[in-house]
Design the sequence.
């Protein structure tokens, strides 16, 4: 499914995917409400979503959060003209499976969609290039494991059981992860890990 407030962008994307037998566009939407309804009726595997969605009652991030809560089988790939790394962090923190810059090639967007359909993440080189400089070697193996399990959707209690440690220890590990990565929240820490290809969702 394609979600964008610009009709010309939707037309261009439909044309792009029309020529690719591995992708079938089952619906298009211009705002968040249309997108939710289309997902309920058409059940797409992947939604390609613009960040801004001008004129909608929700932006792309809020739409992604709603889809993850109501229709978690639909994976979201953001397609955006905004190239600030903060956009990528917000995208992954909202639950997206990938983010592609509108300056990337058509092949990059196709790859992101196909990866998302298999539950794999994709980060545009535009954002990955801005992610340099974080020292992930400062993370201990247990801190990295806790972060990976958090990215896989486990709650703190489940992480503790999986790692055979106490919940307070998990809390401490994640607090240290946030500090070392300069993240304000655990969701942002997961986003930073995804942008830097430390792991995939559900790994």
Sequence:
């Amino acid at each position: 499914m394609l979600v964008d407030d610009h009709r010309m962008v939707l037309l261009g994307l439909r044309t792009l995917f029309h020529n690719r037998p591995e992708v079938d566009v089952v619906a298009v939407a211009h705002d968040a409400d249309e997108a939710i309804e289309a997902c309920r009726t058409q059940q797409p595997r992947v939604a390609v979503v613009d960040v801004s969605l001008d004129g909608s009652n929700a932006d792309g991030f809020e739409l992604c959060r709603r889809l993850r809560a109501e229709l978690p089988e639909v994976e979201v790939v953001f397609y955006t003209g905004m190239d600030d790394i903060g956009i990528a962090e917000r995208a992954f923190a909202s639950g997206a499976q990938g983010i592609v810059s509108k300056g990337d090639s058509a092949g990059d967007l196709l790859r992101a969609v196909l990866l998302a359909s298999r539950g794999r993440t994709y980060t545009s080189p535009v954002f990955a290039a801005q992610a340099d400089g974080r020292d992930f070697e400062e993370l201990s193996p247990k801190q990295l494991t806790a972060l990976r399990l958090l990215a896989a959707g486990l709650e703190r209690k489940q992480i503790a059981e999986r790692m055979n440690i106490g919940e307070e220890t998990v809390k401490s590990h994640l607090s240290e992860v946030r500090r070392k990565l300069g993240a304000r929240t655990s969701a942002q820490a997961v986003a930073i890990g995804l942008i830097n290809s430390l792991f995939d969702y559900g790994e």
